[in-house]
Structures are given as structure tokens and as C-alpha cells.
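Batch manifest line 361
LIGAND: flavin mononucleotide
JOB: complex structure
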Amino acid sequence: MIPPPPTHYAEPLLVGSVRLHSRFTLAPLAGYTNYPFRRSIREIGGAGLCTTDLVNARAIIEKSKRTLELLITGPDDRPLSVQIFGANPAEMAGAARWLEDYGATLIDINMGCPVRKVVKTGGGSAMMCDTTGTTVRLVETVVQATKLPVTVKMRLGWDDTSHSAPFFAREFEKVGVAAVTVHGRTREQGFGGGVNHHGIRAVVEAVERIPVFGNGDVNTIADAAKMIADTGCHGIAIGRGALANPWFFRQLDQWVRTGDPGPRAGYGERIDFMTRHLDRLIAWKGDEKAGCANFRKVAAWYGKALRMPKADKHRLTMLASRAEFLSLVERLRASGPPEGWTEWDAQAADVAVPTGPNAHW
Ligand SMILES: Cc1cc2nc3c(=O)[nH]c(=O)nc-3n(C[C@H](O)[C@H](O)[C@H](O)COP(=O)(O)O)c2cc1C
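JOB STATUS: finished
ARTIFACT:
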């Protein structure tokens, strides 16, 4: 049974001065939400906003090669939010100014990342332990440095004894933040346990006007309906669900407009999407070998979605050339979907997550 959509979700949402035509946004997923993937998602339709992987503010100022690669974008990639992290206000402000000139639509500050290298420097979730004002001042410095709307993405807090997200959301709103996204888990939880909808609701209730995006484990229309009903969130940020089912945004958008999410993607469409993804990774890297190496990261979930035989999955995870890919794909097309293959359910998504709060992406 498809739940009825909340009617206000068909209306656009304002984030500062930016109007989102859909309230469903692509959450940052380091290693995955690069230009090739964002473009491919946007082409299908239904995403109101896409976000880059998190980017180190200092590396932006220093124009590190890897960082500039992460920032590659195009006219078909708007509205675009660039997520930055760092604990030095001057660097964060400098990065925001640079990104404004660069053509970003929004700046998102990362405050929810459970990775040690981010926590260690004082950025990421460690910022959520400081209620003395440093964190709020840092965010205010960024807001004042740019004309672009600034948003913040955070977890509920450090652990269940310290849900600081409602406090920070209110304080951020006071200093001019245009929206917040809340992943309904604590840093201590990592990616384990459930998503705490009460915790997200507390954030929605703490702010006065700005939109709050609920985030965490929304993989189906029913999950989205429950997130909205339980939390009152104004929009939803989706990460892993979009990797597993790139059609998810289109389905959500159609659901809120018509009550019917429309068709799931067929076998051929999934193969086409995978092929475009590889070609764009090669173009993005400017090198076939490097593009294929990058594709290996996503090979496992394509293998799963298409229920490929083990040997084919293995070949994809070792992919070395486009020719090899095309011969495999040609064979898959010729043989058609394996017996029992149904339009795949995104709930079966098995996107690797960091295993503990301190794991690296
Ligand atoms: C592989 C991976 C990479 C992630 N990278 C980032 C990141 O760069 N910045 C960030 O704020 N959150 C990051 N996250 C967290 C997601 O944005 C999101 O909050 C989390 O996965 C829960 O949402 P989901 O269940 O829809 O995936 C990452 C999560 C995963 C699994």
C-alpha cells in the first residue's frame, strides 16, 4: 500500500533566497556524490538539490588538485550545495567566498561527520560538544562572509545524553543560517541502531522559520511518509537510498504530486544508468583507467541491483577497461534479466557504511 502524500510537499521550498522545486535532496556521500553521479541523478528528475562530498575548507583555499576535482560541476548541476568542513573561521569564510565566485548555489557546513580525521581537527561532530559559542560564531562568520544561503548538516548530538541539535539549530537560525539537515543518529551511534524521529522532531520544534531536512534511512516511499509524519520535517535529505535506487527522487516527486510514485526502473534502464555512470566517471577523471578504478567502488551495488552472477560481479569490482565493461554489459543485455529478477526494491540496498563512529569513509 502506497501511503497518501502530505499535500504541502508538492509546494516548492525556500532555502534563504533559493527556491527548491522538490523537497527531496541528495545528501553528501563522500566518494559517491561527485559530478558524474549528481548529473545522472538529476537527469532522471525529482531531486530538489544535490550536495557535493564534504570538502576541506583549507584545501579549497589552497586549491588542492583533489579538492578541485571534487568541485567539478557544470550548468546541468544546479542548484548545487557545496559542503565544507573545518574549524578555522578564517578558512571557512575564505572557502565560502571562493565558492560564491565559483558559482555554488549554497554552502553547507558539515557538523555531523563521525570520521576521526574530521573530529580530530575540531570540525565535524566535535563542534556539537561546544555550547559556549565558538561553534555558533564560526557558523556566523561563514554566513557573514557570503551572500549565498548557508546551511548546516548535523547529527542529533554526541551521544544520547547530549542531544545538542535543537540548541544549535535555534542558535544557527539566529545568526542567519537558512536551513538545517539532521541525521537522526548520534555520533556515538555511528550508522548503527535506528533513526530517532523524536530527536528530529525536537529540532523542527526548536526553530522558528527555517526549514529542517530530516535524514536517515529513508529508502522507500513508506519511509518518507513516516519521516514526514513523525518529525514534521520540511524536506528530506536522502543518501544511500539514492545510490541504491537513482529513480527514488523521481518516484518521491511523482508521489507528492499525484499520489502515485510511477514505475520502478526496469533491467535495461538500470544497465543504461550504470553505463552512463561509468562513462561520466571516465570523463570526470580524464582517464579511462582512473575512471574504471573509481567505478569499482559502486560496482557492488550495481551487481546486486542487477543480480549479476558472482563471476560478473567480481569482474566489475576489478574493472580495468571500458571495453571489458561493454562486453559484459552486452552479454547481460542479450541474456536479459535473470530468472526471478523483479524491479529491484531499494530496501535491499547494501551500500557500505563506515563501521564505527571513528571509521574512515
Ligand atoms: C559512504 C558515506 C559517505 C558519507 N559522506 C558524508 C559527507 O561527506 N558529509 C556528510 O555530511 N555526511 C556524509 N555521510 C552521511 C550521509 O549524508 C547521511 O547523513 C547518512 O548516510 C544517513 O542518510 P541515509 O540513510 O539516507 O544514507 C556519508 C554516509 C555514507 C554512508
